[in-house]
Design brief:
The complex is a heterodimer of chains A (about 575) and B (about 290).
Chain A (H helix, E strand, L loop, with lengths): L8 H7 L4 H8 L16 H33 L2 E3 L2 E3 L2 H12 L18 H14 L1 H8 L2 H9 L2 H12 L4 E4 L15 E5 L4 E12 L5 E7 L10 E7 L5 E6 L10 E14 L5 H38 L1 E2 L2 E2 L4 H38 L6 H40 L1 H4 L4 H10 L8 H13 L2 H11 L7 H23 L3 H30 L4 H24 L5 H4 L3
Helix pairs in contact in A: 2-10, 3-4, 3-5, 5-6, 5-9, 5-10, 7-9, 9-10, 9-11, 9-13, 10-11, 10-17, 10-18, 11-13, 11-14, 14-17, 15-17, 16-17, 16-18, 17-18
Chain B lengths: L4 E6 L1 E3 L22 E3 L1 H16 L4 E7 L5 H10 L3 E5 L9 H15 L3 E5 L10 H9 L3 E11 L2 E8 L2 E7 L3 E5 L11 H7 L3 E2 H6 L3 H7 L3 E5 L1 H4 L35 H13 L5
Parallel strand pairs in B: 1-4, 1-6, 4-5, 5-12, 6-10, 7-10, 11-12
Antiparallel strand pairs in B: 2-3, 7-8, 8-9
Helix pairs in contact in B: 2-5, 3-4
C-alpha cells in the first residue's frame, strides 16, 4: 500500500525532534484533557503515537486518492455556473476522503471538534498533500482561516464556525482586490453596519481569491468611512449560506489548476466582525499571512519532493550511451543537489514550525493564567524567531522548489516538456509558490529586519553553542567562519546608512543568513542521526561557495553603482 | 431501514498480493509468518457497505465478527477505526484447522447469538478463494443469501441489491434476515478515522491484555474491551469444529512452475495485429 508518510523516513525524523516533548506538553497543557475526551492523549508517547498514526492515514489518502487524481484535476479543473464554483471530480473525492478521515481542523482545540495537534504534524500533513497535488493543497491549507478565528474572534463566532471544519467546511481568505495586491492598505471593499438588520454588510469586489466560493470566508474590508490606509480596515467572517457573494469568473492559470481562483462580487453580503475594528490588516491579516506563508513553505517542500522523485525515477530508467543517465556526473550532481536542498529546506520548515508551535502554545496558556518571567521570555523569544523564520522559509523553499522543479524537467529532457509525464505539471504548479502569499521580494522585505536587528545572527550563535560529535567539528568551523563573514557584510551594508543600499543587498544578506541557518540545522540533524552527515557535508560546502559569491559582490560593490541599476 | 443490526464477517488473511520468494514453504503451504496479516480485501468492501447503511439510516449498529487466533483482534480494531460499533473475536484452540464447513458452523452459531437482521461478508478470502463461507453461514441459519453484491439500499423493509455478474448487472430485492456477500468491485472501504484511531488504538481482548507486558496498558489505557468468544460461548459441538469437523482433506499440493512458452514475432502490419487480436479473443485473454 503506497503511503507518502511512511515512504519518506525524513518525516518521522522531523516529527520526532527532541523539542517536541516540550511543545506537546505545552499544547496539551500537561495532558489535562485525557479524562474529558476519549481520544485525548495521556502522555507524550501517546500523543506522538497519535500524530504518527494520523499522518499515516493522511499519507495513505495522499498516495492512493489525491496523487492518482492530480492529473485529471489538472485537466478538468473547477467550473463556475450561476455564480458558484463546482470542483473537479477528483477534488471532491480528495476532500471527501480527508473529511471522512476526520483530519480537517486538526490543530483546533477539541472543544471545537479539532484534534488539538501542534503545528509540526499539521505542517507535515500540508507537505504530504502538496506532494500529492499542490493545487488541492490550497483547499486543504485554507483551514488556516480557522486558526485566525480561533485566535481573534469571540467565542460565539468560534462556536459557530470552527466545528464546521471537521465536518468538511471549506474556507477562503478574501484579501486581494484589483488595486490591492502586495499593498493591502489600498483595500476598498466596503463594510457598513446596518442598524436595522443589526449586521455588517459587505459591498465591493475581490480578485484572485483562492477557493473564493468557500463555505466560510474571512474578508478584509474598509469599515471606517473616510480612511484610506490600513488602519481603516477590519476583518469579517462571511458564511456562504447567508448569500450575497457571487463568483463572477475564475482565472485560467498556469498551474495549481484544481484550485479555483475567483473574482468575487459582494452585494450587501452579511458578515460578522472578527476581533476589533481597525485591527483587520495590522493585526489579524498579518497573523493569517504568517500561517499562509508557512503553508506555502510546506507546499514548496511537497512539490519539490514530488519533482525530485520523478527526476530520480526517470534518471534511473532512462538509458543513453549504454547506461542509465543517473550515472553521468552532470546528472547525478543535479540529483544530489536537489536532494540536499530539499533536506535543508525541510529542516528549516520544521524548525520554523517548532518556533510557531512554542509561541502559540504559550499564548494559549497566557490566556488562562499569568506566565512566569521565564515563560514570558520564552514566548517572546519564540514569537520573534517565528517572525523572522517565516519569511525566510517562504523565500527559500519557494525559490528552491522552483529550482528543483526546473532541474527535474531538465533531467527528463524532451520528455519533460510534453504533458505525458507528471513533472510538467509540477513545474507549472511550482511557479506560484514564489508569487502568492507575498512574493519573494516581499519576503525579503519582511526578513531583512532579522538581518539588521541581529535576530538571525543571535540564533546562529545559539546554534553554535550546541555540542557536536568530534567528526562534525570541521563542518562547524566552516559555519563559524561563514557567520563571521556574514556579520561583517551586514555591518558594512548597515553602516553605510543608506536604506536603498540595504534594500538592494537585502536578498543577498537574507540568503547568506539562511544558508548558515540551514547548515546548522543539517549539522544538528547529523548529530541526531549519523545518516544525515553526508547531507550536512554537501550542503555546507554548497553554502560556502554560495555565500562567497554574495559576500564578494557586496564587498566590491560601491554605493554609487546603485545608479547604474536604476531604471529611468 | 432504521434500527437494524448488522454483522460483518471478516477474516484476517496473509497478504498474498505481495508475495516474495519465501512466501511458500517447501511443502507447498503458505508461509504465514513472512506474509503480513491483513484485513481480507473483499471483507473491507463488505464493511464499507455496512457503514454506508449505518450512515444512511437511524440507529443502525455494525458488529464485526471474525474467527482466528488472538492476533486477529487487529481486524476488529481496524473495523472500529473505520466506524464499526463493536466486534467479536471467535477464538479457541478447538477452532484451529477448520475448513469452510467447520468455520461456517462456528460463525453461524456466533451470528445466532448476536441475532442481527443482516449479515454482510466479502465474497471470498484471498488465502483460500473458496467463496463458500458466506453461503454456508446462510444455509446453516436458514436465511436467504445474495452473492456478488456491489451496492445496496432499502426500499421499505426490503433490501435492494445490485449484483455484479459475469455478463452484466442484476438488481434483486430480498427480505430480512439475510446474508449478503460483497464483490471486490464494490466501493473501496473508507480510510481510518483519526478520532476513532486515537480512541480505539488500545482496545484489547482479555487474552491480549493478559499477554501485554506493557505497563501502559495495565495503567488503564485500555478502556475498550473486545469481546472474545470460545467454543462454550456459542454452544458449539467440538466434534463439528477444527480438524474433526472438517471433511476437506488436502490430498496433494502441487507446485506450479510457469515456464516460458514459445515466443512469436509479429510485425506492425495490420494483418499481424488482427491475427493477434483474434487469437487473444479466442483464448479469452481479452473479451
Amino acid at each position: 500500500m503506497a503511503n507518502f508518510y511512511t515512504d519518506n523516513k525524513d518525516l518521522r525524523f522531523h516529527l520526532k525532534h527532541p523539542a517536541m516533548e516540550k511543545i506537546v506538553r505545552l499544547k496539551e497543557m500537561d495532558y489535562r484533557e485525557r479524562e474529558k475526551y476519549d481520544y485525548a492523549p495521556h502522555d507524550f508517547e501517546d500523543a506522538m503515537d497519535n500524530y504518527d498514526r494520523v499522518l499515516e492515514i493522511i499519507g495513505a489518502i495522499c498516495a492512493e486518492v489525491i496523487a492518482p487524481n492530480a492529473e485529471d484535476v489538472d485537466h478538468e479543473g473547477p467550473t463556475v455556473a450561476d455564480g458558484h464554483v463546482t470542483y473537479a471530480r477528483g477534488t471532491r473525492e480528495n476532500h471527501e476522503a480527508l473529511t471522512r478521515a476526520g483530519v480537517i481542523g486538526m490543530n483546533f482545540p477539541r472543544q471545537y471538534d479539532g484534534l488539538n495537534f501542534p503545528m509540526v504534524p499539521y505542517v507535515m500533513a500540508a507537505e504530504l498533500v502538496s506532494r500529492a497535488d499542490a493545487g488541492f493543497a490550497n483547499i486543504w491549507g485554507l483551514q488556516d482561516c480557522g486558526e485566525t478565528i480561533l485566535e481573534f474572534a469571540t467565542d460565539e463566532i468560534r462556536q459557530e464556525f470552527l466545528p464546521r471544519f471537521n465536518k468538511g467546511a471549506t474556507a477562503a481568505m478574501d484579501l486581494t482586490e484589483p488595486d490591492a495586491g502586495s499593498d493591502l492598505q489600498a483595500v476598498q471593499l466596503k463594510a457598513h453596519y446596518d442598524e436595522s438588520g443589526g449586521t455588517w454588510l459587505l459591498n465591493g469586489v475581490k480578485r484572485f481569491i483562492t477557493n473564493g466560493d468557500a463555505e466560510i470566508s474571512l474578508v478584509l474590508a474598509r469599515s471606517e468611512e473616510g480612511t484610506s490606509d490600513g488602519r481603516g480596515l477590519s476583518l469579517f467572517v462571511y458564511d456562504r449560506a447567508d448569500g450575497g457573494v457571487i463568483v463572477r469568473r475564475i482565472e485560467n492559470k498556469m498551474g495549481i489548476k484544481g484550485s479555483p481562483t475567483c473574482e468575487l462580487v459582494f452585494r450587501n453580503a452579511p458578515a460578522k466582525l472578527v476581533g476589533e475594528r481597525r485591527m483587520g490588516l495590522i493585526k489579524y491579516v498579518m497573523s493569517l499571512m504568517n500561517g499562509a506563508r508557512l503553508g506555502v513553505g510546506a507546499q514548496s517542500v511537497g512539490i519539490a519532493q514530488a519533482a525530485y522523485e520523478e527526476a530520480r525515477k526517470y534518471a534511473s530508467e532512462r538509458k543513453q550511451f549504454g547506461k542509465t543517465i543517473d550515472q553521468f556526473p552532470a546528472v547525478y550532481e543535479m540529483l544530489t543537489l536537489m536532494r540536499v536542498r530539499l533536506e535543508a529546506m525541510r529542516s528549516l520548515l520544521y524548525e520554523t514550525a517548532r518556533y510557531v508551535d512554542t509561541y502559540k502554545a504559550w499564548s494559549f496558556i497566557a490566556a488562562e493564567r499569568p506566565l512566569t518571567k521565564e515563560e514570558r521570555e520564552d514566548l517572546k523569544n519564540n514569537t520573534r524567531l517565528a517572525d523572522i523564520y517565516t519569511p525566510m522559509v517562504k523565500l527559500i523553499s519557494s525559490e528552491w522548489c522552483n529550482r528543483i522543479a526546473y532541474d527535474a524537467v531538465q533531467i527528463h529532457g524532451g520528455a519533460g516538456f510534453i504533458k505525458d509525464f507528471p513533472v510538467e505539471r509540477l513545474y507549472r504548479d511550482a511557479r506560484i509558490t514564489s508569487i502568492y502569499e507575498g512574493t519573494s521580494q516581499l519576503q525579503v522585505v519582511a526578513a531583512i529586519r532579522g538581518v539588521t536587528t541581529g535576530g538571525y545572527l543571535a540564533q546562529i550563535r545559539e546554534y553554535e553553542k550546541k555540542e557536536l560529535r568530534p567528526e562534525l567539528d570541521h563542518l562547524k568551523k566552516e559555519l563559524v567562519s561563514l557567520a563571521g563573514d556574514y556579520e561583517m557584510r551586514v555591518a558594512q551594508v548597515v553602516s553605510a546608512g543608506n536604506n536603498e543600499l540595504t534594500d538592494f543587498h537585502a536578498r543577498r544578506l537574507v540568503e547568506m543568513a539562511a544558508n548558515i541557518v540551514m547548515g546548522y540545522l543539517l549539522l544538528h540533524d547529523a548529530q541526531r542521526d549519523a545518516g544525515y552527515t553526508s547531507s550536512a557535508e554537501l550542503f555546507i560546502s554548497f553554502a560556502v561557495s554560495e555565500n562567497r559569491v554574495r559576500s564578494e559582490y557586496i564587498g566590491s560593490f560601491e554605493e554609487k553603482a546603485l545608479g547604474l541599476y536604476k531604471v529611468s | 431501514m432504521n434500527g437494524i443490526k448488522i454483522v460483518v464477517l471478516a477474516k484476517q488473511v496473509p497478504d498474498t498480493r505481495n508475495v516474495g520468494p519465501d512466501a511458500m514453504k517447501a511443502d507447498g503451504t503458505v508461509n504465514r509468518s513472512v506474509l503480513p496479516a491483513i484485513f481480507n480485501p473483499e471483507d473491507l468492501n463488505a464493511l464499507e457497505q455496512a457503514l454506508r447503511i449505518k450512515e444512511r439510516y437511524e440507529g443502525v449498529t455494525v458488529t464485526l465478527l471474525t474467527m482466528g487466533p488472538v492476533r486477529a483482534a487487529e481486524i476488529i480494531r481496524e473495523g472500529l477505526y473505520r466506524g464499526a460499533d463493536d466486534g467479536v473475536l471467535l477464538t479457541d484452540r478447538a477452532f484451529a484447522g477448520s475448513d469452510t464447513l467447520a468455520t461456517s458452523y462456528a460463525l453461524a452459531l456466533a451470528v445466532h447469538r448476536l441475532a442481527p437482521d443482516l449479515v454482510i461478508g466479502g465474497r471470498q478470502a484471498i488465502d483460500g478463494d473458496t467463496a463458500q463461507v458466506g453461503p454456508q453461514v446462510a444455509e446453516k441459519l436458514g436465511w436467504p443469501q445474495v452473492t456478488y453484491a456491489e451496492e445496496m439500499h432499502f426500499e421499505g423493509e426490503k433490501l435492494i441489491i445490485r449484483r455484479r455478474l459475469e455478463r452484466g448487472v442484476e438488481t434483486v430485492s430480498a427480505p430480512l434476515p439475510l446474508v449478503v456477500t460483497v464483490n471486490g468491485t464494490a466501493p473501496a472501504c473508507r480510510y481510518r478515522n483519526a478520532r476513532l484511531v486515537m480512541k480505539y488504538k488500545y482496545a484489547r481482548t482479555d487474552t491480549e491484555l493478559q499477554a501485554e507486558s506493557s505497563d501502559y496498558i495495565a495503567a488503564g489505557r485500555s478502556s475498550v474491551r473486545i469481546t472474545e468468544w470460545g467454543v462454550d460461548a456459542i454452544g458449539a459441538d467440538p466434534e463439528q469444529l477444527g480438524l474433526s469437523g472438517s471433511p476437506t482433506k488436502v490430498k496433494e499440493i502441487e507446485n506450479v512452475i510457469l515456464q516460458a512458452k514459445e515466443s512469436k514475432r509479429l510485425t506492425s502490419s495490420n494483418a499481424d495485429v488482427e491475427s493477434l487480436v483474434r487469437e487473444l479473443l479466442e483464448n479469452h485473454t481479452i473479451g
